[in-house]
Amino acid sequence: MTPPILAYLATALGYGALAAYFWRTRWAHPIQAASDKAAGTGAWEQVAVLAPLTLHAVLLYQSTLAGPEVRLGIGIAASLIVWLSVLIYWFGSFIYHVQGLQALVMPIAAIGCLVPLVAPGARTLPNAQLLAFKAHLLISMLAYGFFTIASLHVLLMAVLEKRLHGGQLRPALTRLPPLLTMERILFQLIGAGFVLLTLSLASGIVFSEEVFGKPLSPNHKTVFGVLSWMIFGALLWGRRRYGWRGRVAMRWTLTGFLMLVLAYFGSRFVLEVVLQRTA
Q1: What are the start-end ranges of the E strands in the chain?
Q2: Do 86 and 148 reside in the same domain of the chain?
Q3: d(CA 148, CA 157)
């Protein structure tokens, strides 16, 4: 079942309206909060995020699971990862008050939910009925979601660090947690993502052995996936052993995320967008 275009546009409009609101109230003209609680995301703001998030979930369900078969393509996969990123951020907003992140997450969500319209390329997934495959797909998407939020978090840290060194700190940035606190949050995100990525690779091996009778083959997806795993593993080890932080952590995070993006989207982009193949 293909959802109507108006539903996609309504979802993008919801995300876009929130992006404009968070930009105006958190960056362009920061609101003056009377308490630490008010400085974070308000209760009504968290409820407002649920509106486009829920509609986005319905669209993803109709595109992938509503029919008798499971369908997935580069556009739907990108949209799903964006949705999971917003969901992870939404849950995280109850714990952390990183208010500057909303202005980064929402515009990406507005664009991400529209990607299936320009890159439909959905194909029926073989062996989708197997539990090993379902576990592998879910864990992989969650790993992408955590690393996407981590990468956005790194960009926010880079802006904060640059402003601090330049002596031009915007009022909105003064109400962010200290850089050390933001680094701790970053490595919590990376740690969770690394565990999921490890499980993703392990479940991929189990799935491959169950279906093909052999472990993962060294194809494009496997090579870049393992490279990403090694980069994030080295970063976590360097943090624990040598106290890596600051720009070193930022570079390793973005490099690992790039490898992860290439692992799936590199090959799928060539097949589905360049070569117009869905099988």
Answers
A1: 71-72, 123-124
A2: no
A3: 14
| pLDDT: which is higher, 196 or 89 | 196
Q: How many CA within 13 A on the CB side of residue 14?
A: 21
Output DSSP code: residue 263. Answer: I
Q: In terms of domains, do 212 and 199 share one?
A: yes
CA dihedral 179, 184, 186, 188 (to 10 degrees): -170
Claim to verify: residue 96 and residue 157 sit in the same structural domain: no
Helices assigned H by DSSP within the chain: 5-23, 36-39, 43-64, 74-92, 102-112, 115-118, 131-166, 171-174, 179-212, 220-242, 246-261, 267-268
Residue closest to 7 by CA, chosen among 114, 100, 93: 114
Among 27-41, 139-153, 207-221, 259-273, whose mean pLDDT is lowest? 27-41
- Domains identified in the chain, total number: 2
Integer-rounded Cα Rg, in Å, for the chain is 20
In tens, the pLDDT along 213-260 reads 566 666 778 888 999 999 999 999 999 999 888 889 999 999 999 999
- Provide the residue count of the chain: 279
Domain with 80 in it = 1-125
Between CA 23 and CA 19 the distance in angstroms is: 6
Place of tokens 């362009």: 28
d(CA 55, CA 60): 9
The structure's pTM equals 0.83
